[in-house]
Amino acid sequence: MRAKLEVLALVLGFIGLFGTIAITAMPMWRVTAFIGANIIVMEELWEGLWMNCYRQADIKMQCKAYDSLLILPPELQAARALTCVSIVLVVIALCIAGCGTKKSKCCDDNIRSKNITLALGGCLYLLSFLTTLIPVSWVGHTVISNFYNPAVVDSQKRELGEALFIGWATSGILLITGIILLLSFCKRRSEEEEPYADAYLMGSRDIKKEGSVQLERTPSSFHRHQEYV
């Protein structure tokens, strides 16, 4: 059963990797679709981490990469860096967790090394969960705050894009993966300590037997006097 959970964690890890790559590449972080003041012009704008896409009326959508990183708002600048870090963390976590599974032939069947490797993979998954959740939630909070801010003009207001929803789902998958691996590590650790506990108890019993003093019962003087009589 535990081996199946570890395989499930690896599958979820691959899904989390695809999810982080998708949200990093998708231009749909902030989306707007509004009708202009003349009620004729229909505009649609997608803003992502690397480019923005714009379509007006029935014209084919055109995408353009940002000319400079400095023109992005702070939340998108941070999101670009954190999502790239998240991809790297998930890749490393996948490799490490794969070496720590029971069915893996790495570490030359050294149980202790496999346990440490599995725990390290779980911690990296939890760290990638944070690096994915923080930028997605930050951008989502900014979009919602600006949408309900009366000081922001309607043409500057944005809506939540599909990349944000995929990012929240991906962060949840990464969290579940890390928890599964750490629970598997805890169960392995408890099983690893059981033989040592049994050996310690048996050794303590032997020490008590060796150190015990056998006292011989000697008859008292009163008993000898009774026998003499």
From TrEMBL:
<dbReference type="GO" id="GO:0005886">
    <property type="term" value="C:plasma membrane"/>
</dbReference>
<feature type="transmembrane region" description="Helical">
    <location>
        <begin position="78"/>
        <end position="97"/>
    </location>
</feature>
<keyword id="KW-1003">Cell membrane</keyword>
<comment type="function">
    <text>Claudins function as major constituents of the tight junction complexes that regulate the permeability of epithelia.</text>
</comment>
<feature type="transmembrane region" description="Helical">
    <location>
        <begin position="118"/>
        <end position="144"/>
    </location>
</feature>
<feature type="transmembrane region" description="Helical">
    <location>
        <begin position="7"/>
        <end position="29"/>
    </location>
</feature>
<dbReference type="InterPro" id="IPR006187">
    <property type="entry name" value="Claudin"/>
</dbReference>
<comment type="similarity">
    <text>Belongs to the claudin family.</text>
</comment>
<dbReference type="InterPro" id="IPR004031">
    <property type="entry name" value="PMP22/EMP/MP20/Claudin"/>
</dbReference>
<keyword id="KW-0965">Cell junction</keyword>
<dbReference type="Pfam" id="PF00822">
    <property type="entry name" value="PMP22_Claudin"/>
</dbReference>
<protein>
    <recommendedName>
        <fullName>Claudin</fullName>
    </recommendedName>
</protein>
<keyword id="KW-0796">Tight junction</keyword>
<keyword id="KW-1133">Transmembrane helix</keyword>
<dbReference type="InterPro" id="IPR017974">
    <property type="entry name" value="Claudin_CS"/>
</dbReference>
<dbReference type="GO" id="GO:0005198">
    <property type="term" value="F:structural molecule activity"/>
</dbReference>
<dbReference type="GO" id="GO:0005923">
    <property type="term" value="C:bicellular tight junction"/>
</dbReference>
<keyword id="KW-0812">Transmembrane</keyword>
<keyword id="KW-0472">Membrane</keyword>
<feature type="transmembrane region" description="Helical">
    <location>
        <begin position="164"/>
        <end position="186"/>
    </location>
</feature>
